[in-house]
Structures are given as C-alpha cells and as structure tokens.
Design goal:
mainly alpha; three-stranded antiparallel sheet
Length: 528
C-alpha cells in the first residue's frame, strides 16, 4: 500500500517506531499501534488519523485528502522554473499544454515529431495530472547540475531527456483492475439442485445464487421475482476482483481476517499491509489431520511441561509445609514452656501468700492469747467507723466444735430482747455482717448457701425445702459460724424446732419477703 500510493505521488510514507518517539507519544496523542497520521502543508496541519491496522480506512483517507491534488497548487506569481531562473510562471491550461512546455524546456521535439523515436512499450505517453513524480525527478536533476542559476536550461545529454520522458510515460500508466468470473465459486451442489430438480437453466441458477444470498431458497425467491426481466438471460458479466485477504508486504504472510492481521501486527511490529485477491487456501483432509496431530503433539508437550512444573511446585510446597509444621510445633512447645513457667510462678506466689497469711493469723492468735491472759480472758473491743471490725478471724465455733455463744449463754441467764426493726433492715444488716468475712472467701460461701435455701422456698413449693437440718455438715461448717447467717433465716420466716436441731419455714411466711431477700443475696454475692 505504501509503495503504491508513493509511486502515484498521492502522499509520502514514513515509519516511526515507538522507541524513537519516546516521550513524544503523549504530545502526539498516540494511543494505539499501529497509528496512521496524515500530515498536510509540510506537517503544519493534520489531515486525519487511523488507529489500528485498518488498511481500507487508510486508503480511503489518502484518496479523500490527496486523490485530487493539483501538482501546480500553490504556485503563483514569480518563482523558480525548472531551469532555476526567475520570471512569471503561468499555469498551463490543460495537461497537454503542460506536457508541451516540459518537452520544450528539455529541448525535445513535440509528440508529433517523436513518433519515429517512440519507445517500444505500448504504454500511452499522454501526460496526465499525476506527473508530479517525473517533474520532481527532473527538478532534482536540474538543481544538482545547474544549481538553479540559469532559466530555460536543458538536460546535459539527450539520454537524460529520454530517461526522463520514459519516467513520465511509466508514471502515467494506470493499472487496470483484474476481472474475475463471479460464478466460479458457486456451490456445485446447489447449482445441480436448481437445474436438475427445479428445472432452471444454468444461467438463471447462477444469477439466482449470486443475487439470492448463496442459498437455494434465496435463489428461488429472486428468480420468481425477476423471471420477467428483460436481461434475465443475459450472460453474467465479469466483475473486478474483490479483496479476499490481507497481505503483509514485509514478511509475505496472508491473513483471512482483519483480526488476524491486527494480531500479527501487534506481535511482529509490522505495519506495511495491503489487500489481496488471493484467497486463503483451505486445508485438505490430510493437512487438517497433520495440523491436528501437530497441535496434539504440542498440547502433549505443554501438558508434560506443566506436569513437570507442578511436580516441582508440589515438592516446594511440601517442603514449605513441613518447615511451617516444624516451626509451629517449636512455637507451640515454647508457648507451653512459658505457660508452665507462669503457672509455676503463680503457684509459688499463692503458696507464699498462704504462708504469709498463716503466719499473720498465728501472730494474731498469739497476740489475742496474750491479751486475754493480761485481761482475765477478755479481748478489747475493735470499734471503728463501720462498727465492729476485728483485726483477726472471729469464728463462733471453738476448737472442740461447740458454739462459743451457746457456751456463754449457758453460764449467763437468758435475756429476751425485742427487735422492732423491719424485716428488710434486718436482712440488710445480716448480709452486711456476712460480707465482712473476707479471709479465704468464707463469707461468699455462706452467702451462696443462704441463697440456695431462700431460692428453693421462694420458687418451689415443696415440703423438703421448708426444713433446714442444723446438724448437717454443710450448715455447721458454712452457715453456723458466721454472725448474721441464722438471724437472716429467722428474719425471712424460719423458726427453730423444740429440739433446736432444725429450722422450719412458717406457713405464714411472706413470698414477697422471700423473693426480695433472694434478690438481695444475689446482688451481695455478685458484689463479693
């Protein structure tokens, strides 16, 4: 395409590669490869732009912008002639006059006088408007020899003039389009069906297939619609050859579609393409089988290569998995060692705290013993802002297991005291006394047992929950030793039996009081 259009002097072609443009890609607005840009007026004006290897669009752009260009456009007034001299230049009236002027300038005879020396070629020597190539060649030769110093100068030798004249004649030749028979590629089976089965003549069957889309149905419809036409039986005319493929002028490959051409251009960087009447030859069954076998061999090789790579990757992944497993096991072992160290340190601290607590209790007991010995068996009171707050643990059970308060009551006469406070106040005071026992969490254990007693009688109406055995090991160890525990049970409605060995809930005990006491015990246990 570039060579053809350059020979016709419609435009000059130049190729600029991406690496040569560099940073000018953005300034030139190039966003696709290949990109065809048509410049006019010596590059001062852009006439058009085609993106991609669209050869028909490039040819149409060149024909539109440069197809009718006048070789004398822009030449007016005084200027330099082919001989280099100045003077007024007049535009010829027609192409014949322009040819006569050029022959006269070269010192050659006119066409009538050159009949005897006409070249043996059958090419018509009549000058046309597309002789700019010869004019430019003569201009270059004349400028090189005479330097543009003289006007009306001729070529140095007659051979040069003949050569120039021959160039003019060869340039004026226009290639005639190739004519082909349009019926050559029709389907023989459809032709036989239309002629043998349906009774159409061969000529009409050919015209029907040509104008009916290449199908039997379309051919029959067209023939029925045009059977009365005057030219229905005229011979089929030859038509200019239609481009059936695209050809790369750089490597000679032929492509059946524009998509294949663009793919080839993107892979190889080739940009010189043209349309071709040569059809891509379909593969024969043998060639197809060979191609399929070649593709299968290639796929098998690719598959084997992929499997080999997968084996290598699997080995690498297995090594990585084993390494990560060892690292995780090592980390887990280190974490377990650290945990054992922390647990050992915590147990050591707990033992140390328990030892210090035992020593403190022993010291407190020794102090109390000494104080009792000095005060005739009595301890001094421990009154503070919050009332009685002993500095040591004060249980109401002696070493022999008998309650200390009962032993004191046996020695002193019983005095009945009347408590006029409300049940809620009594319960709050009892809970406060029990919560004061902090050593070893004994107060919390007592609150938990009392909550179980009260919750059972408040939520379940069963006789077994209405009796509390005071001789029970749990009651003796976790309820009886604490001040306020028995008083709380008496306040909510329990009363002792005649033998003082159990507490029984009174039939007239208030459910509201029991529910309220349960809520208070839950809150106290949560705050403990």
């Amino acid at each position: 395409m570039a060579q053809k259009l350059s020979v016709e002097r419609q435009c000059d072609f130049a190729i600029i590669y991406e690496e040569d443009l560099g940073s000018d890609l953005q300034s030139e607005g190039v966003s696709a490869f290949p990109t065809y840009v048509l410049y006019q007026e010596h590059g001062r004006l852009e006439g058009g732009r085609i993106k991609g290897a669209n050869v028909p669009a490039v040819q149409a752009l060149v024909e539109e912008k440069c197809g009718g260009r006048d070789p004398f456009a822009g030449v007016s007034g005084a200027g330099q002639s082919l001989g280099g001299g100045g003077g007024d230049v007049q535009k010829p009236a027609n192409a014949e006059e322009a040819r006569a002027l050029r022959l006269a300038r070269f010192g050659l005879p006119k066409d009538e006088e050159m009949k005897d020396v006409k070249p043996s070629s059958d090419v018509d020597a009549t000058a046309s408007s597309d002789t700019r190539g010869a004019q430019g060649a003569a201009d270059d030769k004349d400028d090189g020899n005479n330097g543009g110093a003289s006007s009306g100068g001729a070529c140095e030798t007659e051979d040069d003039a003949v050569e120039v004249n021959a160039d003019v004649e060869m340039t004026d030749v226009e290639a005639k389009p190739e004519l082909v028979d349009p019926t050559a590629n029709l389907d023989k089976g459809l032709l036989d069906q239309l002629t043998s089965s349906m009774g159409f003549s061969l000529l009409r069957a050919q015209k029907g297939l040509l104008n009916g889309g290449g199908t039997a149905e379309g051919a029959v419809e067209w023939l029925l619609a045009h059977q009365d036409d005057a030219d229905i039986d005229d011979p089929v005319k030859f038509v200019p050859a239609v481009a059936r493929s695209y050809k790369c002028n750089e490597c000679g490959k032929i492509f059946s579609s524009l998509a294949n051409l663009e793919l080839h251009a993107s892979k190889t960087g080739h940009s010189d393409f043209e349309e071709s009447t040569e059809a891509v030859k379909p593969l024969s069954p043998e060639e197809k089988a060979a191609k399929v076998a070649e593709i299968k061999t290639l796929l098998a090789a690719k598959r084997a290569e992929r499997e080999e790579m997968e084996k290598v990757d699997n080995v690498a992944r297995e090594k990585q998995r084993r390494f990560m497993g060892k690292e995780m096991a090592k980390t887990r072992e280190e974490m377990e060692i650290e945990k054992r160290k922390r647990d050992a340190l915590m147990r050591k601290r707990e033992k140390e705290a328990a030892r210090k607590e035992r020593e403190r209790i022993r010291a407190e007991l020794a102090k109390d013993k000494a104080e009792r010995a000095a005060n005739k068996g009595k301890l001094g009171s421990r009154l503070g802002v919050d009332g009685y707050n002993p500095s040591a643990i004060q249980y109401s059970v002696g070493p022999d297991g008998k309650p200390l308060q009962e032993a004191a009551d046996e020695k002193s006469p019983k005095v009945q005291k009347v408590d006029n406070r409300s049940t809620g106040v009594k319960v709050d005071e009892c809970i406060k006394k029990i919560s004061a026992y902090r050593a070893g969490g004994d107060g919390g254990k007592c609150l938990k047992i009392l909550l179980a007693y009260v919750k059972n009688v408040a939520e379940k109406d069963e006789e077994k929950f209405k009796t509390i055995n005071m001789q029970n090991k749990v009651y003796i160890g976790k309820v009886k030793p604490f001040l306020g525990a028995k008083a709380l049970l008496l306040a909510v409605g329990f009363s002792p039996t005649d033998g003082n060995d159990a507490l029984i809930l009174s039939p007239d005990a208030s459910k509201d009081v029991l529910s309220e006491t349960k809520a208070k015990l839950e809150a106290a246990l949560a705050a403990y």
